[in-house]
Amino acid sequence: MRVKTLNYLLLFVAILFTPWVTTAANDATAQYTPDVTFTLRTAIADGRLVYIGQGGEIDGKVNPTLNVKSGAMVQINLINGDGALHDIVAPDFNNAKSDQVSGQGSSTVLAFRADKDGEFAYWCSVPGHRPAGMEGLIVVGEGRVAPDIDAEDLTLSPMDLPDPIGDRGPTTLEYTLETMEKVGKLDNGSSYKFWTFGGTVPGPFLRVREGDTVTINLKNPESSTMIHSVDFHAVTGPGGGAAVTQAAPGQTESFTFKALQPGLYVYHCATPMVAHHITNGMYGMILVEPEGGLDPVDKEFYVMQGELYTTEDFGTRGELSFSIDKLLDEDFEYMIFNGSVNSLKSIHNMTAQVGETVRIFFGVGGPNATSSFHVIGEIFDRVYHEGALTDPPLHNVQTTTVAPGGSTMVEFQVDYPGRYILVDHALSRAERGLAGFLTVEGEADSSVFDAHGKDIGDH
Ligand SMILES: [Cu+2]
Ligand 1 center to residue 274 CA distance, Å? Predict the structure, then answer.
């Protein structure tokens, strides 16, 4: 009760004085009178960090949408409701940001002029808080003037992979890969011109058996602007095929190889500048199953990690452009699983039931960054390190290293319901888009994990 009273007192004080306050970050000298005022309180709800509206139409709403008139002077009062460090930023409006506040009941103010129509995000800039849930929308004017970017979804579902081959003899197979250059959605509000195998990132998962004879047709459509090719790490021969598949727009180049050695192998475009073709999305994997096949599991997933080197900073809206300088400096802006920031978070939902065995075919397209692959809240029962499928696996592994142009196959039984997060444990990269969710459903066994009555929400 006392804390609540203090909150209201501080709010009252804030409202009383804010028309005359100066906003240091926003406009160092100007005084202003707000046309509209909102109050948001920070809170922990369902295991997430959020803003909760206080008063008026937004009262009680989680991460409320704030509707304002064109050109309005907007003031947002921020009350710290949970005691952790927080702030609120609206970078689309002249980089508006509040002070950071810590301690329950402390408050600050964000003020800015809504000088353009459209939808814009507000969020908490304390590292990790935006992905944890602290973000909402400011709609200026009629809204939807600058709608979410209208770009195609090029992400490949991790569930999109062929059935196991199992126990069959060697055969003859033929695959056609079409190298498509397409603008795809990168994040909410941004897109990027990807280069792809088959129109998706990563390219399709190819599945063959040791001893199979495989013909690859690399088709580069007329509409392309670049020469493309393919280097299969599963191939024994010049360039892994790249030496004979350099296809100009409108051409198709082919070769045939025998899959001599079982394993999980990366393929990628190998046309100079190779790193440029790879970063733009030209990578995928081919599984060469050993004789007799792999042990059966309940769920298989196909996940690949890649980097993007955009001229614009992470989080910029619009169609982003490629930066050769950043690529050569290995200074990435984005790190993504399966082709976009949201691919494995909200576009494709990986799920499993308690008791099921999960297998992840994990590869790094890169082109440059080594992954420290980890699933938060799980332990890999078996790791087939470096995609070596015919050696005994490592057991009980927390994090496994996967080189660019390398792979791993991990297996684990899921024992408890909840959300398990795929990451590269170089966790700065989670702030640049690299995370995926595996949702496990089923009965909670309190002998495995006991939350002591706490609501674990999405965690
Ligand atoms: Cu290419």
Answer: 7
Cα of 181 to ligand 1 centre, how many Å? 9
Q: Please identify every residue whose CB atom is under 5 Å from ligand 1, which is an ion.
A: 228, 269, 271, 277, 282
Question: Longest C-alpha distance within the chain, in Å?
Answer: 81
Superfamily of chain region 148-349+358-413: Cupredoxins -  blue copper proteins (2.60.40.420)
Q: What is the DSSP letter of 167?
A: S
Could you report the per-residue pLDDT of 53-88, keeping only the tens digit for each?
A: 998 889 899 999 999 988 999 999 999 999 999 999
Task: Determine the distance separating the centroid of ligand 1 and the alpha carbon of 270, expressed in angstroms.
Answer: 6
* Contact call for residues 381 and 414 (beta carbons, < 8 A): no
Query: Across the strands, what pairs with 22?
Result: none
Class of domain 2-140: mainly beta
CA distance 173 to 454: 53
Span from the CA of 277 to the centroid of ligand 1 (angstroms)? 5
At 160-204, the pLDDT tens digits run 999 999 899 999 999 999 999 999 999 988 999 999 999 999 999
Q: Find out whether 267 and 214 touch, Cβ atoms under 8 Å.
A: no
Domain boundaries, the chain: 2-140, 148-349+358-413
pLDDT at 12: 46
Same fold, 2-140 and 148-349+358-413: yes
Sorting pLDDT into bands at 50, 70 and 90, what band is 3? very low
Give the Å distance between the CA of 272 and the centre of ligand 1: 8
